[in-house]
Amino acid sequence: MKVKICGITDLTTAIAAVDYGADAIGFVFAESKRKISVTKAKDIVAHLPEEVLKIGVFVNETKEKIEEIAASVGLTHVQLHGDETPVFSESLSFPVIKSVSIHDDQSLKAIESYSCEYVLLDGPKGKYRGGNGLSFDWNSFSSNDLRDKKVILAGGLHEENVEDAIKLINPFMVDVSSGVETEGKKDLNKIQSFINKAKGSHTGGARNEIIYTAE
Q1: What CATH number was assigned to the domain covering residues 2-209?
Q2: What are the residue ranges spanned by the domains of the chain?
Q3: Considering 26, 50, 106, 198, which has the largest number of Cβ atoms within 10 A of its Cβ?
Q4: Known catalytic residue: 19?
Q5: Is 122 a catalytic residue?
Q6: Is the Cα torsion angle 100, 8, 91, 52 positive or negative in sign?
Q7: Could you report the per-residue pLDDT of 174-210, keeping only the tens digit for each?
Q8: From the candidates 6, 23, 116, 175, which is the catalytic residue?
């Protein structure tokens, strides 16, 4: 199971997450308590392995701004978390992850018109478009709903429920932000535990012996 740790704002946490086995690191460029500057994100990306996905989260941003930030930072994917249209999504030169907030049985209908390879299923909207720690009813989703797309599951995930979520949804990737935080800050122990649970690895290796101090 692939794992994305989103809302990263410092290098120490990014490196630790990758050492623990994260496959993707997410940077929020939209209004959020986890918003990061282009300069800081660029510095973090410069220290990440090539094979790790670097995903930028945008909400109703202009195409020009998205392209500019993505190129400058060195992003591999663009995550659209707003009201972006299928035409807008297709106009971008970077691979797109389109987010959809699941709040009723009709929520998935809108995503059918998007040609993007990845769809991120998130919980209901809160103060921000994402990262609110809210989940949707996983039992309401069928793998047949999006058979031609890679599903990334987000919203309300944490170390205690990620295994059940994976069994029910069988996603391509799980995405967590607030679920690995303590008092609004990324918690390295929670990140490690979440990744181990998601990947079914409950035994520690050499990397588990490394001690980090978050900035």
Answers
A1: 3.20.20.70
A2: 2-209
A3: 26
A4: no
A5: yes
A6: negative
A7: 999 999 999 999 999 999 999 999 999 543 433 333 3
A8: 6
